[in-house]
Amino acid sequence: MDQDRIDGRWTELKGKLRESYGDLTDDELEQTQGNREQLEGQLQQKLGKTKDDVRKIVDDMLAEI
Questions:
Q1: Confidence at 34, pLDDT banded by 50, 70, 90
Q2: CATH code, domain carrying 27
Q3: How far apart are CA 1 and CA 46, in angstroms?
């Protein structure tokens, strides 16, 4: 279900992530192609946060859009 939500709201989610984390580039986000696991891995690497922290970030952003 989460992946369906990401697929349907990918453009909005990308925009929200860029707003919140300005050091994320379009290329980095596009590399994930909307795949939640890849997105979380990319965020984890870029932000230096735990997997649980990154999962919460994505969940919170999906709840907002």
A1: confident
A2: 1.10.1470.10
A3: 25
Asked if 36 contacts 3 with a C-beta cutoff of 8 angstroms, the reply is: yes
Q: Look up the domain containing 12 and give its range.
A: 2-64
DSSP code string of 1-65: -HHHHHHHTHHHHHHHHHHH-TT--HHHHHHHTT-HHHHHHHHHHHHT--HHHHHHHHHHHHHH-
17-31 per-position pLDDT tens digit: 999 998 888 898 889
The Cα–Cα gap between 31 and 2 comes to 19
Q: Which amino acid is at 37?
A: E
**Cα–Cα dist 26/65, whole Å:** 19
Task: Tell if the pTM clears 0.70, that is, is over it.
Answer: yes
Structure tokens at 24: 């994320």
Number of domains in the chain: 1
